């Protein structure tokens, strides 16, 4: 049983329904808890071979198919008999398979058995249209609040909670919360939204069917306000159904955000990209045994279960890989909910959530009428017409001046300024996003937030080597370096986190294209959330310090002081496979100033205006020098405290098919399997 079984009811069978086909009998449950596993069993006469062929399968249909009809390929999930083991003591004419976890889809569902006919070379449904297939419900009610996740709002002392259910009584739903140490409860009425197939830009995402677009439910959101910094709160959420029966979530606990006024000296941020919810809607891979489940498990086990504070989980693009399939979004939120209710879960836009071509539509929620598709890029219809509509409605990210919903925004996490950009939109100088990015970086108070981290889905540095010798994403690397690197240098960005490539890559600290011991920007690719991995071959690059593939895991950033921070990569077994310390250099920008340039005197004009202009310029210059001195002294005072020199460890030597490479020039780094997380 997977480790996440601690969050789910494993099996619950109530009022078992039966139906027969010849001398074959099947048992199905009629009720199962949300996230529950069920056992489907059968027996047959010796002349039958039901369940013995690995191509036999059990299919899940939600909603159930009307009695007497053949549902065809409208199933949303499948469990092949290749996953069934037959003990030696059991005859091949009987067997069982564990099905699940089953998700509350807010409709009645059913399971149907298909057996493979070698004569007809196709799957044939067993018992369809004979005695009927018993349906079952998942969860306590369609009003059951599910898919919860937490985010910051951009305002101090606030956390936003978002969840999904069908519309409860009078369309009202609430959030309750209080300090864990205090029973005085605050109640907040939630607002709600949803989206329809007509909101999509087109393509497969706009096709209404059980396997494509399906009703996403009602998406509720409410904000906890007035939270004391770094304090544990208890919260829960829910509403009433049309029978006036109340449905609430279990009690949740979360630490409120640390102060961002400069008093917080450390933060812990976890990051990954390219996760997905593999399986379902006719995907041949095992439905629920994908690596993304192990990524969630390691976060739960290594940090939350160990009572280690997590200030933020950052998912940098390629979120669910739904590609227009609504059921996959449901699966994805079921998967991340255990960790997303314990810390803010923030996202960046990826190509598989947004990219769309061929649609001249005003439906794009980012505000553009045609998608970004430069001739040098490999942008396509990667979202299958979703154009980020589900992302826009399902994730409510922090607001900042000039931000654009889930596409580009920023916020502070203790002593870190987090910035999220869209590599799926124009970033060239003069573009809306580029102007916003520069203004945002310019406005950071480096005394309170000495660390700046930028997250964007596409990588600026990656040295994977494909067998074809062609990297289709190399043009974006060159484009990104041309336009983003100068900004990162000018404003002292410390770390750029990306994905897109399904591997882990870390560069040295790069400043003006050269490796430096202090300052500069470290570029990390951490596309290790669950998608298939890249090849193990690499090209030699002077900036490369670590390359890991054929494994999954998360990157961690711990800002141990205002002067140094610790970067690690932790795989799904808890091993630390990469570790390095990054330090500030001398390229920190001065505090932001906006001097007004003096206007030259008109030809033949009075000298008085010229003298006045010179005087103003002198005053401004003196003020700038004084401000710079004050900032320098404050920074030096902070930088002298609590310096961290970095960890040590031994190189990982496991014989499993794990591929990673070190550059020996990276002095001070360590990669070990036993280092404390």
Topology:
Blueprint: E1 17-21, E2 24-28, E3 31-32, E4 36-43, E5 57-61, E6 77-80, E7 94-102, E8 109-117, E9 122-125, E10 135-138, E11 146-151, E12 159-165, E13 173-179, E14 186-189, E15 191-193, E16 218-224, E17 232-240, E18 246-248, E19 252-255, E20 267-272, H1 291-304, E21 312-316, H2 326-340, E22 345-348, H3 351-354, H4 389-394, E23 409-413, E24 416-420, H5 432-442, E25 451-455, H6 474-490, E26 495-498, E27 504-507, E28 509-511, E29 514-516, E30 522-526, E31 544-549, E32 553-559, E33 564-571, E34 576-583, H7 607-639, E35 659-662
Parallel strand pairs: 3-10, 20-21, 21-22, 24-25, 25-26, 26-30
Antiparallel strand pairs: 1-2, 2-4, 4-7, 5-6, 5-8, 8-9, 8-10, 11-12, 12-16, 13-14, 13-17, 15-16, 17-18, 17-19, 20-32, 23-24, 27-30, 27-31, 28-29, 31-35, 32-33, 33-34
Helix pairs in contact: 1-2
Q: Using DSSP, what is the number of strands? A: 35
Structural class: alpha+beta
What is the CA–CA distance across the termini?
25 Å
Provide the residue-averaged pLDDT.
80
The gyration radius over C-alpha positions equals 28 Å
**Helical element count?**
7
| Strand fraction | 25-35%
Strand order of the largest sheet: 23-24-25-26-30-27-31-35
Shape: globular
Helix proportion: 10-25%
Low-confidence stretches: 1-24, 85-90, 128-132, 282-288, 594-618, 625-657
């Amino acid at each position: 049983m997977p480790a996440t079984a601690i969050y789910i009811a494993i099996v619950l069978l109530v009022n078992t329904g039966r139906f027969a086909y010849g001398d074959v009998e099947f048992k199905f449950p009629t009720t199962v808890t949300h996230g529950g596993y069920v056992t489907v069993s059968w027996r047959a006469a010796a002349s039958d071979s039901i369940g013995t062929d690995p191509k036999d399968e059990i299919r899940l249909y939600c909603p159930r198919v009307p009695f007497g009809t053949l549902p065809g390929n409208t199933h949303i999930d499948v469990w092949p008999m290749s996953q069934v083991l037959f003990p030696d003591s059991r005859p091949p004419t009987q067997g069982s398979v564990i099905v699940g976890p089953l998700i509350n889809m807010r409709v009645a569902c059913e399971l149907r058995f298909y057996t493979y006919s070698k004569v007809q070379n196709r799957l044939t449904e067993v018992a369809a249209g004979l005695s009927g297939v018993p349906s079952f419900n998942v969860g306590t009610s369609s009003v059951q609040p599910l898919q919860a996740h937490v985010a910051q709002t951009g305002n101090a002392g606030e956390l936003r909670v978002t969840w999904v259910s069908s519309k409860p009584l009078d369309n009202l739903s609430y959030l309750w919360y209080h300090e864990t140490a205090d029973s005085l409860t605050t109640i907040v009425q939630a607002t709600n939204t949803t989206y329809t197939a007509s909101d999509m830009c087109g393509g497969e995402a706009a096709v209404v069917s059980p396997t494509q677009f399906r009703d996403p439910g009602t998406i509720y959101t409410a904000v906890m306000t007035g939270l004391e910094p770094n304090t544990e709160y208890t919260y829960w959420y829910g509403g009433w159904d049309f029978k006036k029966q109340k449905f609430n979530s279990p009690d949740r606990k979360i630490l409120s955000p640390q102060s961002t006024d400069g008093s917080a000296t450390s933060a812990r941020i976890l990051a990954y990209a390219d996760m997905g919810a593999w399986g379902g809607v006719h995907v041949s891979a095992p439905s629920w045994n994908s690596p993304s489940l192990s990524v969630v498990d390691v976060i739960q086990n290594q940090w939350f279960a160990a009572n280690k504070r997590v200030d933020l989980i950052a998912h940098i693009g390629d979120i669910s890989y739904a590609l227009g399939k609504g059921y996959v979004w449901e699966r994805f939120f079921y998967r991340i909910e255990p960790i997303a209710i314990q810390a803010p879960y923030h996202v960046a836009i990826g190509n598989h959530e947004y990219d769309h071509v061929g649609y001249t539509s005003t439906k794009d929620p980012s505000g553009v009428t045609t998608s970004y598709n430069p001739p040098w890029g490999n942008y396509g219809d990667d979202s299958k017409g979703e154009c980020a509509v589900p992302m826009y409605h399902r994730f409510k990210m922090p607001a900042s001046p000039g931000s654009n919903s889930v596409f580009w925004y920023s916020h502070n996490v203790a002593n870190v300024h987090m910035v999220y950009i869209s590599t799926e939109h124009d970033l060239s100088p003069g573009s809306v996003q580029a102007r916003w990015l520069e203004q945002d970086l310019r406005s950071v108070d480096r005394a309170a937030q000495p660390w700046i981290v930028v997250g964007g889905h596409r990588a600026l540095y990656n040295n994977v080597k494909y067998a074809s010798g062609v990297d289709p994403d190399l043009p974006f690397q060159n484009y990104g370096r041309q336009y983003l690197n100068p900004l990162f240098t000018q404003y002292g960005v410390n770390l750029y986190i990306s994905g897109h490539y399904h591997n882990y890559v870390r560069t040295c600290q790069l400043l003006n294209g050269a490796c430096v011991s202090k300052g500069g920007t470290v570029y990390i690719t951490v596309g290790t959330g669950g998608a298939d991995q890249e090849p193990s071959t690499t090209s030699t690059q002077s900036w490369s310090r670590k390359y890991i593939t054929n494994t999954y895991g998360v990157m961690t950033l711990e800002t141990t002081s205002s002067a140094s921070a610790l970067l690690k990569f932790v795989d799904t077994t808890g091993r630390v496979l990469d570790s390095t310390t990054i330090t500030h250099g001398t390229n920190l920008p001065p505090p932001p100033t906006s001097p007004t340039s003096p206007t030259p005197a008109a030809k033949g004009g009075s000298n008085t205006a010229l003298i006045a202009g010179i005087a103003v310029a002198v005053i401004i210059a003196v003020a700038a020098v004084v401000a710079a001195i004050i900032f320098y002294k404050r920074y030096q005072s902070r930088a002298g405290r609590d310096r961290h020199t970095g960890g040590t460890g031994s190189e990982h030597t496991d014989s499993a098919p794990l591929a990673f490479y070190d550059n020996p020039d990276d002095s001070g780094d360590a990669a070990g399997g036993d280092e404390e997380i």
